[in-house]
Amino acid sequence: MLCKKLHHAAFRCKDAAETVKFYTEVLGLKFTHAMGEDHVPSTGKYSPHVHIFFEMEDGSHIAFFECPLDEGEPSGRDPKTPGWVQHFAFEVDSMETLLRARQELQAKGLNVVGPTNHDDFITSIYFFDPSGHRLELTVRTCLDPVRLRHFADEAPQVLALWNQTHDWSQREKLFGAQSGYARQDA
Ligand SMILES: [Fe+2]
């Protein structure tokens, strides 16, 4: 496969120092790199900025730009996209870790949503970083290779039904129930 793993996903932040504090102290990531330029290296456009990287356990990163002269939302979020759509999900190792993290984040004053079960595939909690980016901590809850293969085999059918209907009034065709995911192999 060409793409081996996530290197980084990058977003705009309001304040780099506040962002460093949040990602290192609240989420425990490693602050591995900061680069500063007056001109965007790829385009040459004048935009003084700092680009900061935070590393996870597997070596992948989440990264941010503080670029105060650029137009648009300082957080970089698209105001026309619902707030729950754009988000970044970190994987944690167990349900126990997820629930402990929820408690710790709440103790630090964050508003945490969840845990939410997504299709018996993953379970997640949600909160916002200081710039307003939605973050997710998630744990894989389906470890059965047969069921995982079923999910992958089924994905094109899910997409096809969506393309036909653009709602889920016919969800029983695929999911076995009008709510939840009561598939035959469950
Ligand atoms: Fe997600």
Task: Give a quick rundown of the structure.
The chain is α/β, with parallel strands linked by helices. It has two domains: about 10-140, 2,3-Dihydroxybiphenyl 1,2-Dioxygenase, domain 1; about 145-175, no CATH class.
Topology record:
Blueprint: E1 8-12, H1 16-26, E2 30-39, E3 46-55, E4 61-66, E5 87-91, H2 95-107, E6 113-118, E7 122-128, E8 134-140, H3 145-165, H4 172-175
Parallel strand pairs: 1-4, 5-8
Antiparallel strand pairs: 2-3, 3-4, 6-7, 7-8
The structure holds fe (ii) ion.
Beta-strand content estimate? 25-35%
Which molecules are bound in this entry?
Answer: fe (ii) ion
Q: How are strands sequenced across the largest beta sheet? A: 1-4-3-2
Number of structurally distinct domains: 2
Instruction: Please state the oligomeric state of the protein chains shown.
Output: single chain
The portion of residues assigned to helices is 25-40%
Please give the CATH class of the largest domain.
Alpha Beta
Tally of strands: 8
